[in-house]
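Customer escalation, tier 2.

The customer says the design service returned an amino acid string that "doesn't look like it belongs to this structure." They asked us to rerun it and document both sides in this ticket. The original structure tokens are below, unchanged.
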């Protein structure tokens, strides 16, 4: 039954992605970035509703009040595909995502990302990618947008920890915009490279701004990692399926 429900959701995901992405890259281009972003948020919230109704997968979120008005840098734990749609829907619409450039080549989905001015980077290019994050991220922050980054760079299985890249911390050091950390345990319900979505409630915790004044980027990055990983320890690590 879980496989059937998961497959049904996946079919719905494809349909709604094609429909909303088409709206963003056609009619949406006649409107402002903010209006296109609201369409993208509708896509995120629609997926959360579908996951709840079809798969019995829900969420609880704490700390939304910690998201400031205006631009900020959001650094989130990354365990599954869930947060790529959930954060899109739950956070304020004015978002700019930093992601691997290959995603921009995906039909419909990638084209919509380009219309939303996502920052696509070549993760193998090292310093060039870092400079791109700082240069483009600074422009987006100045426009009052939230720059969203997964510092580990890729999905990490529950109980594991990836290397925290310094891109977000360097961007904060250069711009002095606040960093907001996010911890979540989506991976125990929607596993990496697994079609099945298990029923339950994903926990999401949004932290207060990380103090960055007077700190080097390495120290900022360490504070982010310490907060996220220590908060991860307080979240459920298993679920009853």
């Amino acid at each position: 039954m879980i496989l059937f429900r998961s497959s049904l959701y996946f079919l719905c995901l494809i349909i709604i992605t094609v429909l909303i992405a088409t709206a963003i890259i056609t009619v949406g281009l006649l409107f402002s970035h903010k209006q296109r972003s609201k369409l993208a948020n509708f896509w995120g919230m629609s997926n959360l509703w579908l996951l709840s109704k079809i798969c019995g997968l829900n969420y609880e979120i704490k700390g939304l009040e910690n998201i400031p008005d205006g631009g900020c840098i959001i650094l989130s734990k990354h365990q599954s595909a869930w947060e790529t749609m959930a954060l899109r829907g739950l956070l304020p619409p004015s978002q700019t995502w930093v992601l691997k450039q290959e995603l921009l080549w995906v039909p419909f989905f990638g084209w919509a990302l380009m219309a939303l001015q996502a920052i696509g980077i070549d993760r193998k290019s090292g310093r060039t990618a870092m400079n791109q994050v700082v240069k483009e991220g600074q422009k987006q922050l100045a426009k009052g947008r939230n720059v969203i980054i997964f510092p580990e760079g890729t999905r990490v299985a529950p109980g594991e920890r990836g290397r925290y890249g310094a891109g977000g911390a360097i961007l904060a050091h250069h711009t002095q915009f606040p960093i907001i950390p996010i911890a979540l345990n989506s991976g125990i319900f929607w596993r990496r490279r697994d079609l099945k979505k298990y029923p339950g409630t994903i926990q999401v915790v949004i932290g207060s701004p990380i103090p960055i004044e007077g700190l080097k980027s390495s120290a900022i990055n360490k504070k982010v990692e310490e907060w996220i990983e220590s908060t991860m320890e307080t979240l459920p690590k298993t679920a009853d399926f």
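Tier 2 assessment: The sequence is consistent with the input. The beta strands are 57-62, 72-76, 95-100, 119-121, 146-149, 179-184, 200-206. Residues 2-232 form a domain with the Glycerol-3-phosphate (1)-acyltransferase fold (CATH 3.40.1130.10). Sent an explanation to the customer and offered a walkthrough call.
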